[in-house]
Amino acid sequence: MQPEAKNKKKNLLLTRIWNKSKRAFENPPFILSIILLVVLFYLVVVPLISMVQSSFTLHPRDALYVSDKKPGDFTDYYFKRTFVGPMKKLLFTEPFINTLMVTFPMSILSLLIGGLLAWLVVRTDLPGRRFIAKIAIIPYTLPSWTLALAWINLFKNRTIGGSSGILEYLGFTPPTWLSFGPVPIIVVMALHYYPFSFLLIGSALQEMDTRLEESALVLGADTKVIMRKIVFPLVMPAVLSSWILTIARGIGSFSAPAFLGRPVNFQVLATRLYSNLQTGSPGVAYLLAIVTILLSAFFIYLNQRITGTRKEYVTITGKAATKNVVKLGKYTSLVKFLVYIFLILVILVPLLVVGIETVVRVPGDYSLSNFTLHYWFGKSDPKILAGTPGVFRNTEMWGALWNTLKLGIMAPLVCAIVGLFIGYTVVRLRGTFLSKALDQISFLPYLIPSIAFGATYLSLFAKPRWFIPSLYGTFTILVLVTAVKNLPFATRSSISGIMQLGHEIEEAGIVAGASWFTRMRRLILPLQKSALLNGILLPMVSAMRELSLLVILITPGTHLLTTLTFKYTDYGYYSYSNALLLINVLVVLVSTIIIQRITKADPSKGLGG
Amino acid sequence: MPDIILENVTKRWGEVVAVNNLSLTIRDGSFICLLGPSGCGKTTTLRMIAGLEEPTAGKIYIGGKLVFSSEEAFSVKPADRDVGLVFQSYALWPHMTVFANIAFGLEMKKTPRSEIKKRVEHIAELMAIEDLLERYPSELSGGQQQRVALARSLAPQPSCLLMDEPLSNLDAKLRVDMRTELKRLHGETKQTTIYVTHDQIEALSLGTEVVVMNKGELQQIDEPMELYRTPKNIFVAEFVGTPTINMISGKIEENDGRFGLKVEGGLFFPLKLLNNLKVGQGVIMAVRPEDVRLVKPDKDKPLVFTIYSTLPTGPDIFTTVYNNKVFLTVRQEERVIYPMGTEVGIDFIENSLLIYDSQTGALLGRTSLV
Questions:
Q1: ipTM, interface predicted TM-score of the complex
Q2: Is the Cβ of A510 closer than 8 Å to some Cβ of chain B?
Q3: pLDDT tens by residue, A29-47
Q4: B105 interfaces chain A, CB cutoff of 8 Å
Q5: Ranges of each domain in chain B
Q6: Which residues of chain A are within 8 Å of residue B50 when distances are taken between CB atoms?
Q7: Which has the closest alpha carbon to A78: A50, A48, A57?
Q8: Cα–Cα distance, A390 to B57 (Å, whole number)
């Protein structure tokens, strides 16, 4: 009797295990989540670990300095060199202070510009608000060094060597602090980042429930009181949030300091990181990358704490009611004039200045007799720029253009598809550990500044590991790093898409007997088609103007328009880099227009409408 | 044949018990309504039968076949349980025409194309949607979408139809129309149906039997009118019926040799003796508004109430009266609207007073005023 009962119990256990595992494998979200988790772990977490590890591992080149250890051993040499030793000031303290010194004023300036424009467009009767809203976000779609190059063309002076800028040619010699260093960096970055505050604050103003204001109006408050006591406190979270996020972005910013800081040896963390990689000190570079990650993650965390706890503050109804508008009255023409002057100065003038620079034979001489199209179409001439032919005859440019387009399509494609599956599994397994883990891990790249993220990939893929070959120098790594960096956005939008779709749409298919593949193919994918298309098209633009993420992963074979521009700027071939920039701008603007036509997506939609 | 049997089914989400030890037999051809407030576990029960949710414990049989057993971790896939499911949101596939929506289940069963066409057209005719087959769901009204959802789940001829609050998204008039349709459909087909609703009127008017649930526990299972007349406990009494049943709590006492209910604050209802009541026992007396009568105030009877407010609804006049802290809602017999403050006497229809234990909430018996 006893052994029989025991046997029965054992059989039951086996049946349970058999049935459970059978069903686990019949449950695609479960399997999918495990696969995705493994892949993401390798593409997000492992690079981070690898970078930390590399910064404490002795590099063969430095083995001379650390006598008692072999290359590959654990060492605190880099840590001490960066944070303790005599090099500390140069490697860490100065760049750290400079980063903050640039970032804070920049974030406030961009908040002021963005907030003021948002208010003018949404809350006043300024004529042409719709048009202004559309134009005002252009600086953000352009490569971030457009303004930096234009600034150089305009303000550069001979004190740091090389040719003179347009202003100096016209008889005004700008002081060096205006040509290079923190001041131009702050201005240029603020002018690049302000559309971010503009959109955030603008939509907060736009989506505010007008009934809240009407209640105050009925109770006898005038427009000024309503603005001060109702509108301003309600948009405060959006203001704060855009400010903090701008700081987070500023901390990892590479291109403006690279173009405008390095010529006068003004270094921020990102540029110091880059130069340490160039000079073969990856250990120090990785430590600086870790510092930028921690700094930027701190600010993003801060933002989530603030917006998270005050979320209920923002009352969004999506009701498109008429707003309580401030009448500009007699100031209308003045305000209109100032706004247009501003937009012309930040969009049209820079592009014009960049254009002029490409048609000037001897840099610094802007007379008509010096006009040339050599830098565009000219054959190789050993007397000009060491025989580099005009951009359109330069095979390197065509290669870079092709690579830029290829990257612009492939990275978002990979990103959107992976993002869709992550979103799907996160929603379907909601409440489980797997879902939370996937959700968190796919969000992680958002916390990491681009240049630091690039550095993690360099540290991981510089040499082959296990069965994974060294991807450094391949085009694949560019696609991978761009796709993973954009994953947080793709995942977020896919999560909300699948949530909106609801589970019942798929459950109806389950009850009808459709297999998982049939459900995906016939029910889920067709319904996510437009979201997927948006998910592919919208990041295209950002992929085509990406520099800081890719600059340290580029090799001569995989140049992009952006990195090529940077390379020629480094050579001091400004005519050339300006021409490349213009091509890049053209590519970006044309694709933006095409994409907006296809997706009908317009980030400024609704503002001032 | 397709009896559905739930054996000690429990569903837990972590600490929360959604369904607790539920045992239920649903006979072939019946129309069962699962009724209860939101969060009572009725939808979870339905989804467990469909196979979309896995019970934490228990067994489920459909048509004599085991489809779920927690002990063996055994579970039959939803598609192989031979059930149809109508969702609250309808969950019509918006990118497919009505025809494609209805045909989908048959397609999955590898039904030949000519057969699919025939069946879809037949079911469309039955549901009176034959003119809508080429349209997309977004081009249909709510009522039409509802019919399509029903047609879609009926097309593969499931042995049991499960419906999750299918009418809750319709406006009031359409809802009544659809109830009529559903009742007729069930009368014609004798399709075994499990119908989840939080609307007690819907449950009473549709079900051959009604299952009342609360906090994951089965409260009562009975035919609709029996459920209404004899609620087994206070929860059912209060949940079923509009306006809500009147409740008066007090103690059983003997007053001048007369047995009755003593309300704190003075009011005394003399009652016919019930054997299982003890003096001093705390009870709740419940009475339906239609079982209360307003009468002329009588000096001999101390049950004098005052008119609190009067709500005419058209066919009925509901009047609330009060004495001290005791309020009663009355469905008036006579079509008179009394001014506020009028004094009235009250009486109860013979054998209409339900006595519940105030501790356990269980029904103790039925009695009348003396």
A1: 0.83
A2: yes
A3: 888 999 999 999 999 998 9
A4: yes
A5: 4-239, 246-367
A6: 511
A7: A57
A8: 77
